[in-house]
C-alpha cells in the first residue's frame, strides 16, 4: 500500500494567479499529509489491510473493521482524492483537451462547452465540502458526479480521471466564499495530457474486467 505524500512536479507558486502558493502549500503539506499520517496510524496493526492496495480497500470498505471504518473511509479517500487532484494540475494547463479524452468528452457530452458547463454546475451544486469528478462508469462511459466529504468515486464503482476539490480549504484564502471564481480559475490549470493518459489506462482496465 502506497502511503507516501506524492511530490508535486512544480513549485507551490507555479499555478499563480489561479491557485495561490500559500493555499497550495497548506493543501499539500498540511491537509494531504495529515490524511496520510492518520491513515498510517489507523492501519498500523491491520496487517491484512496493509497487504491490499488502497483502491481495493476503498472499493469494498466493509473489509475494514467497523470501529475504524469511517475514519479509514475519510482518510483513505482524502489520500486518493488529493493524489488525483495534483496529478490533474499543471502550470500553463487548461484550454481544450486533446487526445483520446477530447473525443470521449465530445461523444459523451456533445461538445467541450456543454461538458465544462455541466461540470462547473455540478461543482457548484455540492453543498458543503466535497468533490466534483469526471469518471468512467463500469461500462466505460464518462459521467460527471459529485461526492461529499472525502468519499471517493471508487467507493461507488467508478474510475475517476479528473477531480476538483471544492472544500473551502482549497480556495478560501484567495477566493473567500466565491467558489464560482475558484472553479473558473481551475479550468486554466488542468493537465489534459495526464487526464487523457489516465482515461486511456482506465478504459483498458474496464475492458479487461468486463466478460
Ligand atoms: Mn483538499
**CATH-derived topology of the largest domain:** minor pseudopilin epsh fold
Give the strand tally.
3
Instruction: Report on the biggest sheet.
Output: 3 strands, antiparallel
Overall, the morphology is globular
Question: Proportion of β residues?
Answer: 5-15%
Describe the structure.
The model has no long low-confidence stretch (mean pLDDT 97). The radius of gyration is 17 Å and the shape is globular. It is built from 9 helices and 3 strands. With 211 residues, it is mostly helical. The two termini are 28 Å apart. The protein has helices at 21-43, 47-50, 54-59, 66-87, 100-109, 112-125, 172-175, 179-186, 192-209; strands at residues 130-136, 142-148, 159-165. A 3-stranded antiparallel β-sheet has the order 2-1-3. It folds into 2 domains: 20-87, Orthogonal Bundle (Helix Hairpins), CATH 1.10.287; 99-209, minor pseudopilin epsh fold, CATH 3.55.40.20.
Q: TL;DR?
A:
Helix content is 52%, strand content 10%. By secondary structure, the protein is mainly alpha-helical. The longest helix has 23 residues, at 21-43.
Which features would summarize this protein structure in a list?
mainly alpha, Helix Hairpins, minor pseudopilin epsh fold, three-stranded antiparallel sheet, 3 strands, globular
